[in-house]
Amino acid sequence: MREQKGFTLIELLIVVAIIGILAAIAIPMYRSHTTKARMTEVVNAIGHLAKSVGLYQQEAGAAVWPNCPDMAAIQTSLGVGLNSMRISDARIDQATRTIEATLWDIGAEVDGRTLVLSGNQNGDGSISWQWGGTVPPAYMPKR
Fold first, then answer.
1. Is the four-CA dihedral 27, 30, 32, 38 of positive or negative sign?
2. DSSP secondary-structure letter at 112?
3. Which domain holds residue 77?
4. Which of 18, 38, 88, 128 is the most buried (most CB within 10 A)?
């Protein structure tokens, strides 16, 4: 009787099939988590803008919102530079009391969409913030 060495064709095909199934599950999950991680950078940048709006109001002594139509005006008025490579455009709208950012180079699911942070002035002078925009719910910030 001859001694068997190596793997049979069936064993190799089973291993390849298992690897294929694992890759089919893992690659989309990896992309989703990568997109969510990149969204964190944008959420942090917009959070800094929200804090700057609050400070702007404290210095003004009233519920006055800055009117910044672009990123250059944001840096000039609030002193906040949006150096994030993930935001292609941002603005603060005084009339609607929103901070809007257009997303770029994050992931195909969210590129070109807007992330909006809407502010509601409370009676005590504080601001309540709420996320919105055209970003899919899976990538919308939870806080």
1. negative
2. T
3. 9-139
4. 38
